[in-house]
Each structure stands twice: as C-alpha cells, then as structure tokens.
Specification:
single chain; 4 domains; four-stranded antiparallel beta sheet; 12 strands; Stage 0 sporulation protein; 264 residues; alpha+beta; PSP1-like; five-stranded antiparallel beta sheet; PSP1_C; GMP Synthetase, Chain A, domain 3
Length: 264
C-alpha cells in the first residue's frame, strides 16, 4: 500500500491524486505539483492509501512557500490583464468565440485561454499575437456548455450553488427517461440547468427511484383486484400509492401495502 494525497485546484471540484513522498502533508495544506499543464498550486483535501500500481502517480514537489503564494497572487492579476487583451483581439478579428477564463500556470510556463464556441474556430493568428505579447506558450481550450457552466459558476433553480461547480467531479450521462421515471413534468424550462442541458441532479435520485419502482407494478399494466380488473394509471413513490382505473371508469387510489395485501 502506498499513501497518496488528494489535491484540488481553484475553480475545479475534481480531486487529483499525487504521491506526497516523504512530505507529511495534512488536509488543508497548500502544495506545488506538476500537472500536464505545468506547475500548479493546490490544496490537500484528503489522504488515502492504495495498492501499488504499475504507473505511479506524479509526486508532490514541495509545500507551498511564501514565494509560491506571492507568485500565485501576481498571476491572478496578470490573468485579468491577459483576459482584456485577448478579448480585444477576439473582437478585432471578429472571431465567433466567447472568452471564459484565462489561466497562468504557477511558473508562467503556459497561458491557457478557455473559450466557448458553437463551431470550430480558426484562432491561429490570435495565438500568434498572444504568444508575441506574453512570450510564453499559449494554449486554447474550447469548452462544452456543461464545462462552461462549471467554470463560470452560478446558482440553480433550487437556490443552491451549481452542482457542477461545487462538488461534481465528473459529468454522468443523463437521459429524458430519468425525468420520466421520476414523474417530473417534461418541460425543458423545468428540467434543464443553466447550461441548457438536462440537470445533473436528475441522476442523483434516479437509482433510488429505480429500486422503489421495482416494488410497484408498471404503469399501464392491468391487475385483478377485489373490485375487478383494473389498469394502473399512476405510481407515486412519494405518497407510496397507486392510482387505478376500474372497468366501470371509476378511479381509486390504494397504498403499496394494500396492493401487496390484496392484489398480488
């Protein structure tokens, strides 16, 4: 078993794991690690032990020093300047893209521009200009609408901070079937998030609904009751009830307990 530390970076709820080596890092401490982009400053959010793997994780380089923290603050100021310059260039070239965020790696070895666009964008001249101005490696990253919402943040119709920007580490597949089986009104305005896609929270309770629904008969099926043949009109897992339509057109509502006692 080898010890690892989970590190989270600003603006990204996903946790990445690194080898602390001999550093006795504690949760809440800041450290410097090397990522695929370059050196980054992160915060230790958890400590775990895992079996040894063939491809060991990247090591933690050091605890964050006062110099690292000062450099991080300076980078944030320079990012704001870079954002304005890039936005002016985008407008000058009339590029069909929306600049979302600019990020310097801790060592300023790379300057990343995150943007949204409906189609592919030819930004070659833009990159040349940015490289000439900032004299570092420039990277352009196009984001989908879900990643855009995560990056910008905000609040959902529930009044809470967006799940994608607060704690979700991955985007699970979400289908309209999840909304149907939770008896939600299939109104796009009510089941879509700020990104315009189906809300991520539709997937949270879906497994529970699936387990609960397995206890009930399927909607539309027919059952024999003491009152005669009946059709299942609705299953309500919240009320723990079933609404039936009898052959004479009458509708009755029974509980799951009554269904299991008399109709099975």
């Amino acid at each position: 078993m080898i010890p690892l530390v989970g590190v989270r970076f600003e603006g990204n709820p996903k946790v990445y794991y690194f080898d602390p080596r001999s550093l006795p890092l504690e949760v809440g401490e800041q450290c410097v690690v090397e990522t695929i982009l370059g050196l980054e400053l992160g915060v230790v959010v958890r400590k775990i032990t895992v079996p040894e793997v063939a491809e060991p994780p990247r090591p933690v380089l050091r605890r964050a020093t006062e110099t690292d923290l000062l450099q991080w603050e300076i980078n944030r100021e320079k990012e704001r300047d870079a954002f304005e310059i890039a936005r002016e260039l985008i407008a000058r070239y009339n590029l069909p893209m929306k600049l979302l965020q600019v990020h310097y790696t801790l060592d300023r070895g790379r300057l990343v521009f995150y943007f949204g666009a409906e189609d592919r964008v030819d930004f070659r001249q833009l990159v040349k200009d940015l490289a000439a101005i900032f004299r570092t490696r420039i990277e352009m990253r196009q984001l989908g609408v879900r990643d855009e919402a995560r990056l910008l943040g905000g609040y959902g119709m529930c009044g809470r901070e967006l799940c994608c920007s607060s704690f979700l580490s991955n985007f699970d597949p979400i289908s309209i079937r999840m909304a149907k089986e939770q008896n939600l009104v299939l109104n796009s305005a009510k089941i879509s998030g700020v990104c315009g896609r189906l809300m991520c929270c539709l997937a949270f309770e879906y497994p529970l609904y699936r387990r609960l629904l397995l206890r009930f008969p399927k909607k539309g099926s027919k059952v024999i009751t003491p009152m005669g043949l009946a059709k299942i009109l609705e299953v309500n897992v919240f009320k723990d009830s079933i609404r039936l339509e009898l052959e004479d057109g009458r509708e009755v509502e029974i509980t799951e307990e009554e269904y299991n006692r008399y109709f099975l």
